[in-house]
Model the fold of this input.
Amino acid sequence: MSILSKLFKKQQKSKPDNYRQQQDPEKPEELPIMRDYHENISRIKEELGKSADVCIREFSLKQYKGFALYIDGLANNRMISDFFMESLLKKQEELQSDSFQNLIDKATSLGNIKIIKTWNEVYDGMLSGNTILFIDGYNKAIDVETKGWEKRAIAEPSTQLSIRGPKDSFIETLRTNTALIRRRIKSPNLWLESMKIGSVTQTDVAIMYIKGIVNEKVVTEVKQRLNRINIDSILESGYIEQLIEDQTWTTFPTIYHTERPDVVTSQLLEGRVAIFVDGTPFVLTAPAVFIQFFQAPDDYYSRFDISTGIRLLRIMSFFIALIGPSLYIAVTTFHQEMIPTAMAIAIAAQRENVPFPAFIEAVIMEVTFEILREAGLRLPRSVGQAVSIVGALVIGQAAVQAGFVSPVMVIVVALTAIANFSTPSFSMAIAARLLRFIIMLLATFLGFYGIMLAIMFMTIHLCSLRSFGVPYMSPIAPFSFSEQQDVLVRFPIWAFKNRPPLISKGNIKRTGQAQKPGPPKPNGNVANGKEKGDQS
Amino acid sequence: MKKIIVLFLLLLNSMTLLSGCWNQREMTDLAFIVAMGIDKGKNKNFDVSFQIVNPGNVSAGQNGGGQGLPIAVYKSSGDTLTEAARNATKKISRQLYYSHINVLVISEELAKEGVLNIIDACERDPGFRTTTEIVIAKDTSAEEIVSTLTILDKLPVLKITKELQSTEAMLGENLKVNVDDFVSSMISKGKNPALNGYKVMGKQSEARKASNLTVSTTEAYLKADGLAIFNKGRLVGWITQDKARGVVWVLGKVKSTDINLDWKGKKNALNVVPIRSKTKVSAKIINGHPVINVTIKEESWISEINTAINIDDPRVINQIQKKMEKTIKRQIIASIKEAQSLKCDVFGFGEKVHIANPKYWKKVQNNWDEHFANAKVIVEVKSYNRRAGVRRNPFWDALK
Done:
């Protein structure tokens, strides 16, 4: 531990090297825009290093000279030419003496316009796709929003699939992502606050929550933790996640991430805070609790009995993924009396010619599978097929035929692998994947006792975790009877009376009175009356 | 300070890693004993034979089930069971593993002398299960039973356990008795244990040869036969066939069996199969003598009719029921008489007397065998005929 903290200290001492740090953010006037037109151009050329995609379009309007600055590819070229340059040049006759105010008033038909005075604002605007308009003789510039870069179309989610439910997923553009949520929650209480994180990348980060449902303390906490971040780059929401999570020394995720807008919407409605990061389709939500990682969107779209069954299946398969191979090891090396005689003999017969002890056998198979899985993930799609064929042949056939592993072991590994995939959240599945090896080791040394020890330690650890002030295992530990509506058993939607009280504050009520559906009462009912009328 | 903590944590970790693997045994290092036979020894007290599975030859793996014999039998001797078991390690390459013993075979010869010196070892060893069934080798040695090969079941021991299970369920002449049951009825003053007898039929010399497995009618095979009755840990006699069924019936363990009935002068004209049966035993003390009431209620169906009969007539069914009651009653009285002549209360009547009148029981408990032999037993059978299979009146009607 001490070595690590020493390393960190050293890093903290080293000086950050980027242009924005050199100036005091409190006093942006220190680098003002010059009055002189040429001076400005040369300054831009010098500071941007004559980058090829920086476009400087010079023009003259009557006696005034000026230039427009934008980055090709970030700004929408058509927007600039049709709605900005064209209208500007056409209307030059109407321009009055005070051309600056005139330009703002009349020259452009575009919406989002602001006057800026410092170079930092110039760069910020330009680098996020805006066009900056400089006029000779003025020490200010006009920032016109012309954002328009190439973006991916909204496609089906690729990591969180569901049978029933919306098929859209987030993309790499922050504004599109927030719009996807806005379209789902048409409420003025849906608040969005944005900031830029990353001293070099200046990545747009936005937090979204529903005022009145969210716990304000969590919002301030999230903002505080985000403001604390001082790093050169944010390339994915994973950066944010790792910089703001409550506990680093755990395999369990304490912040939820998803690429599904419907999931984020439901999280917001439960009073959670969503963190959007530009450049990634993965949106973070916090606070997160353990059971949340076993809730799939389908659970809420299909009927409650089915969802309950499937959720129980998922939790069971999580345990299979966690302790499957360990159980095999423990049973075959410590507790042979636990197996029925016929099965014990069958397993013994298969292990007869295997040259390795059960643990080594299990590790060989598990590692082989992990390699295959990783390779399958990384390989180009065209080669992926080959890997799965080779893998199936190697694991399934050749290893067994060669007598290196027993067929039971193949069954165990296959079952574990498949069980692992059934956890809806990848970050939770990978935790089980990692812990599996530790539990296998303990099972080898101590048998069932070791497995129990591991599960006990895991439980204690899980109970010690918190996510933004919410106990990770809630509502199981601390147990809350009224919140069991969405834990192991998913209650019917009409029984979801309240929002989880540990997460949301304020508007806790979720459903109105008497939401339980049923056939109409026999008397005084419209449908019944009509039937009678028809018959007569 | 931090360094000390880190060092301590490292040491703590190595504790689990360096402590070795307590009790770890790879399956390939174990000899799964599935049956154990105990004979009276020649030089030492006991000759113990272990039926050990040869897993590769039993289970259908890649090798397509194995060519060799499914079991190997090793013998060793000792003055106590543990001594014999430890001596056996000189002959067996693998560690003996007792948890999968299904059957414990005791030879008749040894059983007649007493089994008390065997039982404690079976109860005390943590690996040995007290759910292991006990059978008595009748007219043969335990080793012979343990080493006989069987054709239908690859593991001979499974033949014994499955067979006991199915005859208890389908015929009711045998009982599943495990070490636990045996001990609890042995120490009870109001009950005497009964164990199953097992025989090797046919040529005993062929029983352990592989050639015994290559013919459809085996030269030698295992067969359950009768109940061995114990008193004070010693075998005192056998109750066989119908009388054995009577014993099992009174014990309330008969689920199904079959009974032949005569009809209007034709012998064995009907066969009736009880499907459900309930036995109630109660005791009363009348004039200082125990009177035992055995009430049996059974439901049955007619499985065979070999004579012309109108079973649509409820009066006929009534007659059949009456006949059935009579036959069962006769059989049960016969087996109670048999047990009384052996002075062995296999039915646990003493326990019922104890429940009915503890004071009286205190007086007679040490002499219960005599009292049992003279006790009055009233048997009452109630029979209900529920159905007659998927045919109504038999074809015999049309032949008339």
